[in-house]
Amino acid sequence: MLDISALSQLLNQPRKIVITTHHKPDGDAMGSSLGLYNYLIQQGHHAKVVSPTDYPEFLWWMPGNEEVIIYTEQKEQAAQLVAEAELIFCLDFNTLTRINELGELVRQSSAVKVMIDHHLEPEDFDDYRYWNINACATAQLVYSFITDELKRPDLINADVATCLYTGIMTDSGSFRFPNTTASVHRIVAGLIEAGAVNWRIHELVYSSSSENRLRFLGHCLTNKLEVLPEFNTAIISVTHRELEQFDIITGDTEGIVNYALSITGIRLAAFIVERPDRVKLSLRSKGEFPANEICKKYFSGGGHRNAAGGHSEESLPQVIDKLKHILPEYKTLLVQ
Diameter of the chain by CA atoms? Predict the structure, then answer.
């Protein structure tokens, strides 16, 4: 693998660079990607962010968003960018299956591949890895990569700071998760000093719901919430028909699982949604409960200990039933 001196040498002159992140990117995925993009263009690099899929409208305001290429909508252009790239930065994912069809293009590319990520068990497809599972967000790692590894804190301008703040804010649960350390708060303070307007970013991300989303949330909490007190678990499940009924778009279901987890005494929450091609499952947990273990072992997924996801080819009722049958295996952890 490359060392930092070799990578720094590569970046000393303008390069053709692609930055990509996982499918259906969230705030950290786009925040870290656009933060790195805004850093690289200051040095004259020909950089482009290529997202495997679309992403929520509440992230479209970030600096540089207008330059993002969405693979599913611009396949030829995206493929050409990957084929011509000299470096490919892979942010907020650690296996090429997380970027769908784009993964094989990246694998076949002769470009130097740089992984910046905080997820467990990375796949060995990269030439340089900046990886720390204790980081609260990939955006935190991008900040450290720029300031500590590349030694360019002077290039953390307002655009870079705004994007990185967004990534850290969203992946840390607005700074409330346990891995939001004193060091993270010092980084955030530096980003605010560099021009990130913290209150405005929070408003743009969290106070921009459509009427449809709010009505859908009300439906989920009133009609679809199931609490299993014997396992300190709460489940919200929705059908594809219900998504269509409320005209749900990308991003509208994000964060709903956290409402279930907020119930007093609940240690595990699940949001299970029926999509046209599969059933997707998001788990959130408290304390030492291993949500990622359940997703990896039973639902072809993974993630962090307290935030994980998976999917299944089975029907929605079958997935719900499967999860319920798994819970007794973890009862000791759930009711302690």
Answer: 61
Helix crossing, 182-194 with 158-171: angle to 10°?
150
Residue with tokens 């690099």: 45
Q: How confident is the model at residue 136 (pLDDT cuts 50, 70, 90)?
A: very high
| Residue that is last in its domain, among 206, 221, 247 | 206
Contact (Cβ atoms closer than 8 angstroms) between residue 307 and residue 276: no
Which pLDDT does position 278 carry in this prediction? 95
* Residue span of the structural domain in which 162 resides: 4-206
Give the Cα separation of 125 and 322 in Å (integer).
Answer: 33
Query: What CATH number should be reported for the domain holding residue 247?
Result: 3.10.310.30
In the chain, how many domains are there? 2
336 pLDDT above the threshold of 80: no
35: amino acid identity, one letter:
G
Residues 184 and 246 in one domain: no
| Closest to 283 in 3D by CA, of 305, 265, 315 | 305
Amino acid at 208: S
